[in-house]
Give the backbone structure.
Amino acid sequence: MTAVQQVTIALPEWINEVVDWQKTYADDDEKMALAIELSKQNVLRGTGGPFGSAIFDCSSGKLISVGVNRVMPMHNSAAHGEMVAIMLAEQQLQSFSLNADGVKRELFTSCEPCAMCLGGTLWSGVKRLVCAATADDARAIGFDEGPVDASSYQYLADAGIEVVRLVQREAAAKVLGDYLNDGGTIYNG
Ligand SMILES: [Zn+2]
């Protein structure tokens, strides 16, 4: 019998050393600090690209899932931090939509999403997207963000998704710069 193909995307083992799953995250700064710390640790520990994300319940501040870039270790071009966080949140909630139960959820990401992840954000059902470093910061070190422009963000806004940008941009951009300076691979397909 031929084996059915499947794919596994796993977080690195250090995640539980860094993430306090019981903590209630009070505000955007605390939530973004986690996303950026994940991006930083992913670089320091050599477990993927310089990007981190986290998904929370908007009102309670409860952490649902985290994601870090796993493209190279998982041999998976779709394993961006945002997509990993979205897939794990949906698995956690056993739903393909992160608002199906009427609870608003939000995606925090250390860098503005690429074309894939902006689409993934839309399909995920999150109602809020909060970004730190800009797409230009990612482009500045050589990453291609794909076809993302003002109309992409307008589409999200029209779909009822609040987008907040430039939260702790400098701290997140520093991780990108450190990744480049340390010889990190820029892995556009
Ligand atoms: Zn992406």
